[in-house]
Amino acid sequence: MPSRRLHEKTRHGCAKCKARKVKCDVQRPQCGNCLRYGCRCDFQDLGLEPVTVMEKISRHPKSGLTCESGSDYRNSPWAEIVSPPASSPSAECLIPYPNNIYQLPLPTIPNLNLHDLNIFRHYATYTSASLSDRDSVQQTWRVAVTQEALPHDFLMHALLSFASAHLAQICPAQRQMYGESAVTHRNIALRSGIPHLRRITPKNCHALFVFSSVIAISTFSIPNSPNIPLDSRIDNILTFIVLIRGVNTVLQSGLDWIQAGSLEPLLQTERVDWRQKIGPLPVSLRDAIQRVSAWNDQHTLGTRRELYAEIIQKLESFYGAFSIVTSDRSLVFIWCAIVSAEFVAGLRERDPMALLVLAHWAVLLHSVSAQWWAGERGKLLVEAIYHELDDEWRAAAQWSMDIVQRPWSP
């Protein structure tokens, strides 16, 4: 008669298996016997199996617990934690230990993307401080903006795009990798964020306000190939202007909500009345603006003459304000945010008057070339516009061309 098959005993079976005097397979959350008989198992109320540390060790009296590398676990730095001295009263205490840990279902949480985590760390540490010298504004970009990004994916991707563009600028050896990351996050942010602009609410207005600003500046600052055609530089600025005008869309609907929230410091400088000249212009700059205005009177007809006259006046005011507002260099972008759709249409048509006005704004951009997000973009834009104009109009743009060939000095 064949001997009866032996099985390893366990002291941790459920109460129903013990009552039946049958072996319990100790499976969680319901042992096999209870599952087969259709009764409720004790394990369904417990979740984890209490096992003593010393009992676990006693199951391997010869080899002891081992690390994955095969070395003796008792010689590892963890030994004092897992195996306290026998004299210690805590040696026999019960600890929760999942019996089938490798069979537990994994949570549906995506793996950590260390590349993006590094980019986000860079944003919080460095990029957030690059748009202003004022402590209150830097604190807002670093703390309040990141808090807004956590529940809004479109803003998070915009920040990652912005920080990636920054890294591409300061890490030449990894320029391509970070440049591609900037483009990828920019595209995701645009695809997921723009639909929200159709319905601005008290809950999303703060995130959309920052999104509209950051996605435009990110697009503006993503590195371009040095071999990019001159005409494409004008198209890139057009894209930027279209995006930055989205800030006005948000402010028209949500200004009061934003002013009452944590992003209010970002609006403080914008309370300046840009319609008034705040600071006196240098003589050379004043003369240049007056020449552009006179050129508009002579060469533009109909409603566009009035349109361009208004835009030139705003540009003159910005030059005056910019001469004294030195803590927020990113204010150079505000003029682009307030230009009209008709002016954008003139740029698309390559209207020489519109291009001439843009060239004089590019000089203002050249004045902040020390900022990483500006660099030589002002100079390159003026050169692209100069190349687009015919000889007659190039004479009107000569001042801009001369200014950007040397370091900024009004």
Automatic annotation (TrEMBL):
Entry keyword annotation includes Transport: no
UniProt KW Nucleus keyword: yes
SMART domains listed in its UniProt record: GAL4
Stretches assigned to the Zn(2)-C6 fungal-type domain: 13-43
CDD domains: GAL4
Keywords carried by this UniProt record: Nucleus
Record-linked Gene3D superfamilies: Zn(2)-C6 fungal-type DNA-binding domain (4.10.240.10)
Pfam families: Fungal_trans_2, Zn_clus
GO MF annotations, alphabetized: DNA-binding transcription activator activity, RNA polymerase II-specific; zinc ion binding
Source domain of life: Eukaryota
PANTHER family: STEROL UPTAKE CONTROL PROTEIN 2 (PTHR47784:SF5)
Name of the featured protein: Zn(2)-C6 fungal-type domain-containing protein
Organism: Heterodermia speciosa
